[in-house]
Structure formats: C-alpha cells, structure tokens
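Sorry to interrupt, but I need a hand with the structure work. It will help me judge whether the discrete encoding reads sensibly. Write everything out right here, beneath this request:
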Amino acid sequence: MCADINRVSGARLADIKHIRSYVLCQGQGNRNMGYFQKSSEILKPVEDKSAMFMGVPLVINSLDFACKAEVCRGKIAIAGFQRLQDYLVNNSGELGYAVIGALDANGRPVLRVDIQGVVSLQCQRCLQELEHVLDIHAVLLLAQNEQELQSFDEDESVDCILAQPDMDVLSLIEDEIILGLPVSPRHEQSECTSGGREDGKAAREASPFAALAALKKTH
C-alpha cells in the first residue's frame, strides 16, 4: 500500500526554486534485497529499461522503480533544461544520464542518478566561457514521510528525498545538475585570457560599487 506525499520541505533545494516530492511504498522493504554490495554499496540493477527524452517528460513510479531495480538511461539536449539555462553561457550539446533504482544494504529503496557531460559556464575571474565537466553520481534515499525525512537528514552521509508515484525524471536530473554546479566557477589563473582579464576589470570598474568608490575618492 502506498502512502501519498504531497509536498516536501525545500531544505535541500532551496537555492534552485524547485521542490521535489516523491512517494515511498510501505511493506516491501525485504523485496529484491542485495542490489547493493554491503561492503561498498555499489548498485547492481537486474533490469534495464532504456529511455530517451523526445520532447515528452519521462515519468516513473519511484516506488516500483526502486523496488524492481529498474534503470532508465539515455541522452538529453542541454537546451531541454529550462532552469539550468540561467547558469549557462550557451546551451549547445547534450548530457548522458542514468537513473537506477535499487535497495541499499539496509533494504531501503534508493535512486541513483548518474550524469556525464560538459556544460558552458562563465568564469568569474575573466568572464569568458568555461567548460565544466559534469560527472555526477548521486544516491538518493527515499523516505516515507517528512518525519522520516528529518530523521534521515540527521545522517550527513546520505541524501534523502520524499517520493511520488509520478516522478518527473527530467526535473530530478536537472536538480542534481544544478546542485552539482560550482558556486564560483573559475579557470585556472594561467588559463584566463588577457582579454578576459581586461574585460573583467572593465566590468568591475563599471559596477555601482566601483562608481561609489570613485565618488568617495573625490571627496
């Protein structure tokens, strides 16, 4: 029997203007045990259902997906991530993904989200384009309710989410990408172009703070 969960507190995703909510089905904690190696908790899915986004949101039942150790994978155009666009210099290219359901060593349903690819950010030192390599491997523990979520959150070694039977996989992947972006992306100092450094200096001088500093110097 599944318990519907409507909302989840935004503690984990407060900075990306999106709240994930999922559902965890009770009574199946002992089903499909062993998809993690207990020593290293490496996922071993037994069923692979490949999927591609073709302009239609991919929705899965997170409970069944985890308990049946299903897998969906494919490639997504970077331009398809609406919220991610605010962080990018350009949106060309695509990312590879895999969403894997399993039970951990303690028999708890989890989702693993793997994402690989390259996104174009803006270097905060030279203001030029910076190619940032994504190699994300997130394991998300599914909680039954907000009380259980809070309990799991006390363990800093795991990331916990609530579940829903109609989970939007595209949003899940986008959440993990945004959470994995650097706060202040920068080239190595030797890689920043001289033109970029000049552009950065000009931008700083044109800022309101620079104008205020100049005003103070004249008084």
